[in-house]
Amino acid sequence: MKNIENIAAILAQFKCKADERSVRAYGSGHINDTYFLKGRDRAHTDYLLQRINHNVFRDVEKLSENTCFVINHLKNKVKNNGKGDAEKEVVTLVPTTGGKYFFKDQYGNFWRMCYFLVNTKSYDVVQTAKQAYEGGKAFGRFHAMLSDVSPHAIYDVIPNFHNVQIRLEQLASAVFFDNCGRAILVEEELIAIKKYAQFMQYFQQPKQLLSLPKRVIHNDAKFNNVLLSQNDESQCVIDLDTVMAGYVAFDFGDAIRTIINKAPEDEADINKIGLNIPLFAAYTEGYFHEAGAFLTSNEIDSLLMGVLLFPYMQAVRFLADHINGDKYYKTEFEGHNLQRARAQFNLFEKLYSNQQLLQDIITEKSGMLKLGVSN
Ligand SMILES: Nc1ncnc2c1ncn2[C@@H]1O[C@H](COP(=O)(O)OP(=O)(O)O)[C@@H](O)[C@H]1O
Ligand SMILES: [Mg+2]
Hints:
The chain is of the alpha+beta class.
């Protein structure tokens, strides 16, 4: 991650009491650059400063409007239900001296700041069923709290973000231009992806367009976008940049992609990739615990397709980025995106051949709720 040369000038723009000498890179996000800063004295809270990736988010003004809208809505929900603590359960942005929630510096970088939520943890790899269950609760609650917001209230900051048809077209275009001469080396992967291309168009079919409600969803529901408390209880959903209209199955599928794999997202040895079914069951149970009350039966029926779609689509995106010369995802070594694409495709195939088992668990967990036996 790049050092920040103009840290003092950036901090001066925000209504904060951050100690500029304490700045250090933080977290493992692929998209934005995140820095931690200590408060200037003990009484002051710590902060996170983020450089927004404006190659990904082209309209930072609209992005900021979306985020503020969603944060206000969530905070009001938490306050109104009288049980929670809106300061701990919803991210709080730090305003600039000009009353905005982002700042553009002289180099064209966009910065945003939020309060650091103490005593929280985010996991790149889920370790226990309890963590998975609590993650399911966090996203279920997030969906439930946003279920009364019209999807038209939110700007589409990245149009077609989870449209697999467009992702396949982007892959085809990467192959066509083949700027780095890599396409010829990945023919096997391209054939494998093509084999399932038709099947994966489920969410683009007219039947689904008519029967599935569009809702305001997270759109980047990776497990590490949930903060759990020190006791591993769900506390706060973070990383709200991509909150836009979509299907709940998208978030369900993306979260499961990051939970169910026994190996890391970029595992080089595909023999290590396997399905952790207990974690899947735990997440699903947690999710229904919070979201079961508002989901339609069509939405419940669509969840499995979300589970299949996300590793598949991620494989398509990683492969396209590899062919394009690693322009979108940060990479740690040459061929990293190809390795990620292979791992995600292998995960997809394993999920594909275990569909019945996964569906049975979804049915059981949603049925449990209807029978009132869920805790
Ligand atoms: N308000 C916060 N309090 C504590 N930690 C946070 C907070 N927001 C983000 N983080 C941590 O910083 C990491 C990166 O932040 P995130 O907003 O998810 O960026 P990215 O878009 O790069 O994934 C998270 O995975 C989490 O560990
Ligand atoms: Mg994140």
